[in-house]
Amino acid sequence: MKVAFISLGCSKNLINTEQMMALCRSAGMEVTGDPAGADVAVLNTCGFIDAAKSEAIEHIIALGELKKAGQLKKLLVCGCLSQRYCEDMKVELPEIDGLMGTGSYDQIVEAVNAVWAGEFPEEFADISKTTEEGERLTTGPGYTAFLKIAEGCDNFCAFCIIPYLRGRYRSRSMESILSEAKSLAGAGVKELILIAQDIGPYGKDLYGEKRLAQLLRELCKLPFHWIRLHYLYPDHFDKELIDLIANEPKIVKYLDIPLQHCSGPLLKAMNRWGDRESLTTLIADLREKIPGVVIRTSLICGLPGESEEDFEELCQFVLDTGMERAGVFQYSQEEGTRAAEMPNQVPEEIAQQRVNRLVELQSTVLDTYNESRLGTVLEVLCEGFDSAEGCYVGRTYADSVEVDGRVLFTAAGAIPAGEFVNVHITGTQDGDLTGEIEE
Q1: Dihedral over alpha carbons 377, 378, 384, 388 (to 10 degrees)
Q2: Helices (H), 322-434
Q3: Sheet harboring 251-256: ordered strands across?
Q4: What is the mean pLDDT of residues 328-350?
Q5: Using CA atoms, how far apart are residues 296 and 255, in angstroms rounded to an integer?
Q6: In angstroms, what CA-CA distances link 13 with 3, 195, 307?
Q7: b vs e for 229-243, b when ≥16 Cβ sit within 10 Å of the residue's Cβ?
Q8: pLDDT in tens, 358-415
Q9: C or N terminus of the chain, fewer CB within 10 Å?
Q10: Which DSSP string do the residues of 113-182 spell out, in sequence order?
Q11: Percent of residues, the chain, with pLDDT higher than 70
């Protein structure tokens, strides 16, 4: 049987897709990424916000057209959208031949076989009892890999549906994480990216105390060149962790800290930590203790109750802290969340205007950072030759996969993807850096 896998959404979702691919391959199925000509397509969906839901539905409809054209026989849909809207999807999307929730990834072989046999499987196991162990069929470039250390979330932010789709926070055992990390290192991975909904509380549920620093020390003994951290919430920084990040060469000085806002009353209403003063102090402390640190954050415009004064405070906070990277999002009113029922919902057009303004403001911060790099020599992970640009492309420690900028550089000889090179930065181009290899 030929089974095609399509993964939407975040890197955490991608890992679940890779685990399902490995299970199907072990069962003797042929695994592909192209649904055209496949017997069964498995679509792993995101259902976090409206944009993600729309993307998933568009894929379902497109795969349905492949079925009508005789290029695909069956469609199995799994992931967050299925977990959230199972009953609606059965009625409104007749293209679907089976559904699975986020607690049932390990049942993929049985579900695929059931679909192929003409049944309509509905697999929805306990979302708080899933296992993250097992083989993965990694799909990314061989030099970079994600490693999920925990699943679920206990934060229950008022605007977020994730705990209801992914369950309570549950850490993987340190032994299983290190075993997988050793396999990745042995396969030639040079950049390891630790991920979870929040990596900060790692181990607290399993060992009775947070053990992220201990885990990092063990990972740093393996032959990775870079270890990158996604995501660290602001309330999980302590002296031990900060000192480790500052002094361990393998841990890149890049921190993704989802803040969402800086207004104390808004953050409190959203069940988030901090206010403008405490967050400003945290960022200043990180900059002092981790020289050269680059900070990325996520910000939401249009949260319920956000006044013009709150938004102006956020704009000034962005300028004052100079966070080099930011994803700016418009608040999405999601049914099933407390925020959806809160008073003083901000009109969408106003929220969008605020997004546009904050993005423009953040771009000035990015420009200032890029200009500060001019004339320096930076270590760059080459990701190959871009024929459209006519040069090589890569990333510095300050640039994570797909979400940040690039370095466009020239070289006299051939540079293989996955090679680390030193690049003399000579210019900027639309938010990217440009330069030439330092011989």
Answers
A1: -70
A2: 348-373
A3: 144-148, 191-195, 226-230, 251-256, 294-301, 325-330
A4: 95
A5: 6
A6: 18, 11, 35
A7: bbbbbbebbeeebbe
A8: 999 999 999 999 999 999 999 999 999 999 999 999 999 999 998 999 999 999 989 9
A9: C
A10: HHHHTT---EE---TTS----S-----S-TTEEEEE-EES-S---TT--HHHHH-S-EEPPHHHHHHHHH
A11: 100
Q: Do residues 143 and 417 lie in contact, with contact meaning Cβ atoms separated by under 8 Å?
A: yes
Q: How large is the angle between the packed helices 276-289 and 239-247, nearest 10 degrees?
A: 40
Sheet holding 2-7, edge to edge: 30-32, 2-7, 38-45, 72-79, 98-100, 122-123
The two structure tokens encoding residue 103: 């607690």
Q: Identify the pLDDT of residue 51.
A: 85
196-247 tens-digit pLDDT: 999 999 999 999 999 999 999 999 999 999 999 999 999 999 999 999 999 9
* pLDDT higher than threshold 80 for residue 131: no
Q: Which two tokens stand for residue 60?
A: 């379902």
